[in-house]
Amino acid sequence: MLQAEIKSLLKEDISILIKVPNSAKHYVCDCGEASLLTVKEAQAISAIFISHTHIDHFSNFDGIFRHQIGSGEKVVICGPRNIHQQIEARLKSYTWNLIDENAIEYEIREIVSKEEINVYTIRPPYWNLEYVKTQNVLFEDEYVNVDFAILDHKTDSIAYLFKEKDSVTFHENISDFKNGKWISELKTAFENNDPDKEIEIEGTLYKALGLFHLLTRNEGYKLGVIMDHAADEDNYKKIKDVFNHADMVYIETFYKDEDQEFAKMNHHSFASASGKIMKECNVKEAIPIHFSRRYTENDQQEIETAFYKAFRN
Ligand SMILES: [Zn+2]
Ligand SMILES: [Zn+2]
């Protein structure tokens, strides 16, 4: 099951690390100050997901690439409109005369709309952008698919949903056969929806369909990260489209209810509004994140109380 860890302390900006089980790979959502992010973790990040480039979400991008450069790996960066130019500007602001051209490669995916994602690559030492293609899928690797919503925060703010791939369980206790390589053949037929596939067990051929009762499909865990957004109906409609029935969602809750006028002014959310939309989305668990830096620990508790009251009520 995907595991998220908040790497920022109270009064720091926001950065959430997502760890993939049984894999050395991590993803990171936003690059705010993150005292708890270790060098080893930064080096294991294979994809960076940026909601928007307000400084509190983007300032530690340098801190992360500082540890990644030299890895020789390809790292994907997903983000809103113009993210490619902002990454380019950041990378070009340093001197790279001692860096090899294979030190790293970034593949940047600029989210223009739900159907239009522009892909660019950029590499040292000159960091000139190269346009590769336009595609309609944001991100997929061997572990997850990533869906998203483009929310309004007076600028695009991308909310991401990480969907672990479904898995298939074999129920040995109800099988009359000896285990063997036929189990993985059967699983493949099941995953490919191929009931006519012939499976050989102990010298006899069986139709896959007749063996499917030995398997069950486990739906992959769904983990969401919703950063800065205005607490309004347009955003809520988009959030419901993508995050309905998610297992766990981290959601921006910048203000206390008593400061909701500021939320409105700054296109942010507040405690009971974030809790309520999570309830309406039928998510199993939700966690409020990214509080105003002027808040104390008591304010944070107040936010959490109002949030969970609206979420669980
Ligand atoms: Zn913001
Ligand atoms: Zn913010």
From TrEMBL:
Organism taxonomic ancestry: Bacteria, Pseudomonadati, Bacteroidota, Flavobacteriia, Flavobacteriales
UniProt protein name: Peptidase
Family annotation (Gene3D superfamilies): Ribonuclease Z/Hydroxyacylglutathione hydrolase-like
InterPro entries: RibonucZ/Hydroxyglut_hydro
Molecular function terms from GO: 3'-tRNA processing endoribonuclease activity
